[in-house]
Amino acid sequence: MAEVSDMPLFDDFGRCVPGAARSPAHPRSRRYFTLLQPKIDYVASHARLLSCLGAGTTLDAAAFEARAASILSRLESDPRTAAIAHGVAVPFILPRLTIDDMGQSLDHRFLPAVREAFEGTYPDYRFANHHRGGLEGRTGIQPESRHARLVAAMSRSELVGIYFPALSEYSLPAALEQVTALPEQFLLAGGVDTCAALISAPGLLLRTDSYPPLLWLGALSSEQPAMGYHFEAYGFNLTFNRRPHLGLAAEYWSCGLTVLEDG
Amino acid sequence: MTIPEAEPSGLTASEAAKRNDLATRKPYIAEKLRNIAAMEERGEISPIIRLEKSYLCNFQCTHCSAEYYMDRHIEKVFKIKDERRKIDLEDIRRLSREADELGLARFVITGGEPLVMKDFDEVVAAIDPDRHYIITDTNGWFLDLERARHLKSIGVEKVQLSLDSMIEAEHDTFRNKPGSYKRVMRAIDASLEAGLNLILSTVLVRGRGRTEEFRSMCEFAKRKGIGLYVSYAKPTGSCTEHPEFVITKEDADIVRELEKDYPVFTHMTPSYGSYKGCITVKGIITVTSTAEVTPCPYIDFSLGNLRETPLKEVLARGMRNPWLGPHRPDCLIGEDPKFIRIHTEKTKGVTHLPLPWGQGFSDNDSLLDD
């Protein structure tokens, strides 16, 4: 059962305050590895989600914008969650889809869509999937992540959501612990929502002046508990890979939260 | 243009061919190298050990990171002698054994200029070329064909040869050594002829990545079929007096783009299927002439002295340090302004580098100010 206090859950920069995490998480951040809020062009974003991912067939760009705005407005109206809007927020649409094998869906639909969106937007740069052997049958959903709710909702209809990379400098176990203490509308981001956010805003990790964080797909389980999957910039390029996290925190690492329209 | 995606083994075809050759000649070392990926998945580390037994050098380069360790600098600037006990061959044998027990597989003999060391062959033997993959740095001055063949015969596998410009006069000026460019070109041919693995090493100062000269060096490396290792200029050693050399992220990203077309790489380029980012402790350590262990060639803070602390504990200190242990994509001493400031302030005016454990790094370090 989640414990909910009246204290703000996010700091002035939209970072989730790691009050409930028992595993390693930095109490404060010096904000060295940061993201900038991408400019969201809902028409372009909707077009990319539709053409690359097949998402957005039941709503147009205006409806996408209105429904994303309602999510933000709901969060901003609650003093405990309002400050999340000070951080980076990326609206996305997920297609209606029944997912039986998360790895297969990522391999065959979502990661190729990220590639198409990124390379279509930045033709001089590349998306590289460094993960060897594929994900099919190799990844599932962390039970404490609340991510199963997103997958269940996807099977019923298209979804509008917002991705917040608000769990910066959390270990993956700490991110799981923290999400269980947040209001029920917060889900730990996994594969499909992070991919959809990167299709909506392909330049999220593209920074020329400083380094962006690595984005873990924290809601996904791996064959080995100490391993995880992630997106990471390499210069101006975007990469997908897996690596050991060993339950540790790093100032370079961030997990994300997803909030869906219906909460 | 493509970013090379990993082969099923995680190695490129060229890397795999070199590993196969090594496996036939030195199976024990090849097995240790094969194990590195599994070690990394378990959270274990396998850093390359840079061994600075002597700082003697026949050059005096503008950007030298080791200059402040050299007797000539200490005597000229501070008017004192370095009386600290220096490592000997027995220390190196002990280090070799400790490293082997931890699964570490690679040594780089550096300095100074290794090829002026009178006991170079004894150092190679003390490291043990049947237990460790041995590399030597060199400025190339003394590396003719006869010397290259000799290096190969005593078990050296690879040479890292410094080349700082494709413009002869610029290289010679940067290295303060007329004729040095011609010697590098001779050394390239000699190393290849002798069957040594060879990489060129060059220093990237701010803005160089955009120059025609740098592009021509990349072309040269590609034409010769040899790797070009790009070392960022760091604000340490002689470079402390040249803060204008320190690169920006733009410079680093230019090199990352060139990796698509040329055999060019930095210490943070994914290699052998490994994606370490900054390699402090995780991918490299330096053992100084006084047995101090620093986490990279350019950070003058010690993690411990091998005469007092076992290598295993020294590495553990590094991995639990918040600056050094965690994964990060940028060069700590070459790009992080806060760490650079801390390092510059703590090392300013210090006569004997590196700062001992507890004075530079300690277990109380924090990324934050308080």
UniProtKB/TrEMBL annotation, chain A:
Top-rank taxon: Bacteria
Protein's name in the database: Uncharacterized protein
UniProtKB/TrEMBL annotation, chain B:
Keyword Iron-sulfur on entry: yes
A Pfam family it matches: Radical_SAM
Cofactor(s) required for function per UniProt: [4Fe-4S] cluster
CDD domains per UniProt: Radical_SAM
Domain Radical SAM core: 41-266
An annotated Gene Ontology molecular function: catalytic activity
Protein origin, superkingdom: Bacteria
Keywords: Iron, Iron-sulfur, Metal-binding, S-adenosyl-L-methionine
Name of this chain's protein: Radical SAM protein
